[in-house]
Amino acid sequence: MPELSTVRRYEAAGFRAWPASSVIYDGTWAIRLTAGLPAKRLNSVNPLDPADSLNIGERIERAARRFDAYGRPVTFRISPLAGGTLSLHLDREGWVSFADSIVMHCPLDRLPLEGVLDQIPLKDVGRFVGSALEVHGTKPAHRPGLSELIGSIEPETGLFVMEAEGKPVATAICVHDGDLAGLFEVATASAVRGGGHGRRIVLAALKWARLRGAREAWLQVEADNDPATSLYRSIGFSEAYRYHYRRRAGT
C-alpha cells in the first residue's frame, strides 16, 4: 500500500498540470469537468480523503446531475485516496471498473541523460496541438479544447515535438512544478513505433526539466499499454500507485 502522502503529492501535481475547466468540491470529492475535451482525467469525480464517506448515495446523485449537464456519464477516478467504503458502495450498486492505470516515478539523477541532445520546447501552442492531434490520430474537433487546456497550465510547461521527413512522429508535454517533472501526452505515430522516438523525446523533455531544477519525474500510463510501460521501466521508472475508473453499468 503506497504512502497516502505520496499519493496526495502526485494527485495535487496532476491537478495543477492537467487542469479541468470546472472544479467543484463536494466535501473532499473534487468534481472535474471539461466541456471541450472528453478525457477521463478531466471529467471525473476524484475522492481525496478515505475518511470522507458520509451520504455517498446523495452525493453521487448530485455529481451525476453535474455530469448530465455536460452530456457525460458520471465517472469516478478511484485512487488510494478514495478509501474502501466508497469502493464497497460502488460494488454493491454494480458500477463497473475500467482503465486501470499506473502512476510511475523516477529520480532524475538516475536517468541516462548524458549524451541526450538538448531540445528547445516549442513556443507555438497551435503548432504543438496540430502535431499532437496528428500523432495521436485524434479528431480535429478536439483542437480548441486541447489548446485551451495547455494555455491554462500554470507551472512552467515544455511542449516537445520530434519530426522525421518533415512530419511529426512523437510528442510530449513536460510540466515543471517545483522539484517535480510531469509527463503528459507522450505518443509516437503508429507508423514509426519501435524506432526509438518515444525514448528520445521523453529523455529530451526530462533533461529540459532537470536543467530547470526538477529532481523527480512522474507520469501516468494505462496498465495494459505494454509498450509504454516497458519503455518507462527500461528508462528507470517504477510504480508508485495505481488508480482506475468506475461507471454505472451500461453507461
Automatic annotation (TrEMBL):
**What protein name is recorded for this chain?**
GNAT family N-acetyltransferase
Sequence ranges assigned to domain N-acetyltransferase in this UniProt record: 115-251
Enumerate the Pfam families for this protein: Acetyltransf_1
The source's domain of life comes to Bacteria
> Keywords on this record?
Acyltransferase, Transferase
Does the record carry Chloroplast as a key word? no
Q: What Gene Ontology terms describe what this protein does at the molecular function level?
A: acyltransferase activity, transferring groups other than amino-acyl groups
Keyword check for Acyltransferase, yes or no. Answer: yes
